[in-house]
Amino acid sequence: MSDWIVVVDDDKTNLKTAGMILSQNNMRVSAFKSAFTLFDFLREGSIPDLILLDIMMPECDGFEALTRIRSIERELHIQEIPIIFLTANEDLDAETKGLSLGAMDFIKKPFVPDVLVMRVKHIIELVRLERDLSSQVEIKTKEVADLSLQVVQAMADAVDAKDTYTNGHASRVAKYSRMIAEKFGYSEKQQSDIYMIGLLHDVGKIGVPDEVINKPGRLTDEEFDKIKQHPSVGSKILENIKAMPGLSVGARSHHERYDGKGYPDRLSGNDIPEEARIIAVADAYDAMSSYRSYRDKLPQDKVRSEIEAGKGTQFDPVFADIMLKMIDEDTDYSMSERKDTT
Question: Taking the model in full, what pTM does it have?
Answer without folding.
Answer: 0.60
